[in-house]
C-alpha cells in the first residue's frame, strides 16, 4: 500500500500541531512510520487519503460499536444540527438519554453528562472526595482514567507507549494522594488500606482493563474490592468509559454482578461525538452542584448534537440485546482463527479476550497485570503491526491497546483478518 498523501499531510500537520496529532496514541511513534490520515469511513472500513481501504479494529478507540457512519446516529445528528448546535440551556433530549442510561445501567439513579471520559473520571473522583471528606485514591498500575493530574501515575497505554508513566507537570502534592496497586492483586490493596486508615476516598478501576491490552479481572477480584470498600467506607468507582454499553447493556456491573458506587462513561455513550458521563445513586449524586456542594460544570455539557448521537446509539443497543452476543461470537471466532495460525507458525503469544475486547500479546506467560503485559516482545509487535497494515488491517499502533470489535464486521472480514495473520506470522518468529 502507498501512503504518500498521508505522509505529506502528516509533515504539514507537524508544523502547526505538536507531533502532528491532537492525541498522542494516534502517532505511530511506538511502531515507527507515519500515521495514516483518514478521509472517510463506513461500517467496518476506513478509507484513507491515499485511497486505501482498511478493516478497522480501533473504531475510534471504542465508540463505533455498530460501525462507522451508522445511519440512525448520523440522521439524528443531522436533524438536530439544523435546529441549533448549542444553547447553554436545558433541553429535553438530555432527560431522555439520562432516563435510558439509568434504565440500562444497574444501581444508578442519576447521571451527569460531560464532554470526555477524562472529565467524567476527574469529576467522579472530586465527587467521591467531597462525599467522603477524604483525599486519597487507589488506582491500579496500567489502568488509564484520562489525562487529569491525579491519574497520570502509571497510566497505561498512551502514557506508557510514550515512556512517560509519570508525567512532568503533575505536582508532587497531587501525586502523593494517588496510591498505586498492581491489577488483580487484592493483598496489595489491603495493605494500602492498612497503611492509610480512614484516608481513602475511592478506589478507581477499569473493571475489565483495556489500556494495557485487554486484561479481565481474576476470579473474585472485583468482589474483593467491593468488600474492602464496604469495610473501609470507601467508594468504589468503576471506570466504564471503555466497557460501558460495550460488554453488556449495563456494562461490567451487569456482566459480573458487582455493584460500584460511581460509574463513569465515555466512548460508546456518545455514539462518536465528544461525550462522557458519571452516575451513581441519589445519595451521592445529590452532592453535586447545584443541589450539593461539589462543583462541576461545562459550557457544552449535554450538547444537543452529542446527546442526539448518544441517544440514537443507546436506543439501538437497548432495543437489540443480541448485539452483545453477536459481538462476542465474532470476537471468539477471530480469537480462535488468529490463535490457530500463530500456533501453526510457532509464534509465542497470549490472546486475552472478553466480549468484544481482544488483544494479542507476544508473551508466553499469562498477561494478568501491567508487569506481565510489559514483558511481551515489543519488537514482534512492531513487525506484526506493520505486517497487518500492509495487508489492509488497521490495529492500534501500540502493544498496550485493546482491539475493538464492531458489529459491522462480517465473517468474511474476520477471515480476511485471519488470513492476514497467517501471511504475517512466518516473519514473527
Ligand atoms: C478512553 C478512556 C478514558 C478517557 O476518555 P477520553 O474521552 O479520552 O478523555 C478514561 N478511562 C478509560 C478506561 C478509557 O478507556
From TrEMBL:
Sorted UniProt keywords:
Cytoplasm, Isomerase, Porphyrin biosynthesis, Pyridoxal phosphate
Named in its record, the pathway it takes part in is: Porphyrin-containing compound metabolism; protoporphyrin-IX biosynthesis; 5-aminolevulinate from L-glutamyl-tRNA(Glu): step 2/2
- Any idea of its EC number? 5.4.3.8
Per its record, the protein catalyses: (S)-4-amino-5-oxopentanoate = 5-aminolevulinate
Any single GO BP term? protoporphyrinogen IX biosynthetic process
Q: Where does this polypeptide localize?
A: Cytoplasm
Q: Which InterPro entries match?
A: 4pyrrol_synth_GluAld_NH2Trfase, Aminotrans_3, Aminotrans_3_PPA_site, PyrdxlP-dep_Trfase, PyrdxlP-dep_Trfase_major, PyrdxlP-dep_Trfase_small
Q: Give the quaternary structure.
A: Homodimer.
A Pfam match is Aminotran_3
Transmembrane regions listed in the UniProt entry: none
Residue list for modification N6-(pyridoxal phosphate)lysine: 267
- What organism does this protein naturally occur in? Leeuwenhoekiella nanhaiensis
The organism's lineage? Answer: Bacteria, Pseudomonadati, Bacteroidota, Flavobacteriia, Flavobacteriales
The protein's GO terms of the molecular function aspect are: glutamate-1-semialdehyde 2,1-aminomutase activity; pyridoxal phosphate binding; transaminase activity
Q: Name one GO cellular component term.
A: cytoplasm
Family listed: Belongs to the class-III pyridoxal-phosphate-dependent aminotransferase family. HemL subfamily.
What is the required cofactor set for this protein?
Answer: pyridoxal 5'-phosphate
The top EC class, named as a word, is isomerase
Recorded name of the encoding gene: hemL
Supply the name of the protein.
Glutamate-1-semialdehyde 2,1-aminomutase
Q: Report which superkingdom the organism of origin falls in.
A: Bacteria
Q: Does the keyword Isomerase apply?
A: yes
